[in-house]
Structures
1.
Amino acid sequence: MRTCIRIPRIFIPDGGFEKWAVIACDQFTSDKGYWDRVKKFVGDEPSTLNFILPEAFLGEDDEERIEEIHENMYRALEQGHIVKLNRGMVLVARKTDAGVRHGIITAIDLEAYTTDAGVVSPVRSSEAVVPSRLPARIAARRGAPLEFPHAMLFYRDKRGRIVHALLREDLEEIYDFDLMEDGGHVTGYYIPDDLAEDVAQELQTGSEPYFAVADGNHSLAAAKAYWDEIKENLSAEEKRNHPARFTLVELVNLYDDAVVFHPIHRLVKKVDVAAFCDYFTRQLKCRQVGSLLFPAVPANGAGVKQADEIIERYVRQNGGEIDYIHGDKNLTKLAREEGCVGIALRPIEKESFFEQLAGGGNFPKKTFSVGEDKEKRYYVEGKEISYD
């Protein structure tokens, strides 16, 4: 059996981890104040903030920002702010309010990944991808020497054998620090090449898909689209080992005790609040608290699809914008703003996760979140995607 895992050589910073690690770019999309605080905290220090385009600022000088991202990556390489580890993986222990979640940083083969409906593959998307969200992400990869992705993939290990075995090893600690903005604590341990090969074999067991996206569907889809774009001009030999063919991910056990599913709520903006609430509640049974709606839909993909269809139909007919919000408190705060309505959804059931994907299925876009907003992945590790 050919593995869809590639053991990478991973980049980490040479120090200053507290300012280096920032949260995934698709978080706090309606809260520019969060990103302003991060920018102030980071200052002029080396940081992955300089390598990403937060979605809160999409549409604001994107081309200029992307050009700066590429320049910042080359500068970090030239000035020695990042160091390349020997070939291997990283075991991550992330402490949050939900407990300690363990993940394994490695690279997966994008040739083994698909978002296509009805297609069974070793690595599977879990949610429908919104095409309009890909161009900026793909553009950020063009001309970039490195990637610092935030994709998290689930694997299935009910007894937790893989992580338990790694915790018994005498692994070298390579970082240990508090994450900014109350993101919790994270510790990383280097898994050397020989042990990493064994781990790769253990991870790829059972039926396909072996891995399914837990978080970062659009990040992975953009990496795949970029690879499909450049491979057309490569020879067969170049295609086999080109660094852009393999993208960095964090593999997390679905049955980890600290894996908790949360809903991704909907925020409808720039609408007549009374008119929208009347429209929505006439079509779907709801509990209403001010400008917050709690629809009575099942805790699964079908329930999310039902709510989305009503929201999208209203916006098509009457105007408005739809945003996707992590966290109950964040939704409550944003729903108080003028012209905004929050639609609070329920979390999906963990046990049904891979069942939904059987036969090449997907959840509707933005159905679930693993952890609360501040528990999302922070950028620490990176990898080359270019020979330049």
2.
Amino acid sequence: MPNRRSEDARGRGGGRDRAGPSPRPDGPVPPGGREAAGPVDRLDLPWGLPGSFLGLDEEASAFDEARAVILPVPYESTTSWGGGTQAGPGAILHASRYVELWDQELRADPSTVGIHTLPALELTRAGAEPAMEELEEAYGKVLDASRDRFLMMLGGEHSISAPAIRAVAARADSRISVLQLDAHADLRATYEGTSASHASAMRRVLDEADLVGVGIRGISKEEVEIAESTAGVTLLFADEMWDDDAWMDRALDALGDPVYITFDVDFLDPSLMPATGTPEPGGGDWYRTLRFLRRVFKERRVLACDVVELAPIPGMPAPDFLAAKLVYKLLGYRFFA
């Protein structure tokens, strides 16, 4: 059953019960229309209608007491095969209402740290480049208003990661490393006429950050050449990850500190995660992936995360639930690993 304790509890699971993005309002809308909106909510940004991760009530999700902030960005413009990522954040929020709050691995209820969910950030439709410029500015404002809260962005296509990474890098006290869990390198200079493509997301951050890509198994010659010729870029291919867990040590050895984690759900094998636009066979499994992520949070200072590229399949809720559970595990590792 969903986590909302009472159907008539004020402010719980705000917004309609939906899997897709909300209509764009005429102006900024504070989450749930609450009178006591936090400083992030008051920013003059193009918010959509609200939603609540895990269906938490106002007390459990109030901004002032929260240590984590969820930012949905239902952006889709450059997907190159299957579409639907625009509906990803809404599907994650909806499925999260059915995630059990107790985490037996951590022996804790991570929701008790307070998780505040912002309304969806709906970007300009004037083109991919203007949208990414708008997102970098907006994400930076959210970071500044959030202060020391942990920011988790839900996508949307993978192009949205680059502006977020650049905003985090600009505010970090040292050069950051990006841990990219992904089936694809996303290192193309341009793709289908734009440098703001999902296939170019990691190429856009090489000046600001080092990169460790894990699980790669779909890559072009151009991307191999970029990876081999660029200092600070390490790729671990999926076919190197199955004999033992030594790949975890290699990834961590290459990973600096602090870290931004970007998790493209096509990192996972399509048998687990069919709901993505560019599935590749041979991806990660659930428990090894979690073991690796827990080590990253234990051994590195993780500044922020994103989970992107969920393209919900109507009538198939399991991938949506997996993505929601993954988000909750990442939050759990951040505060309890």
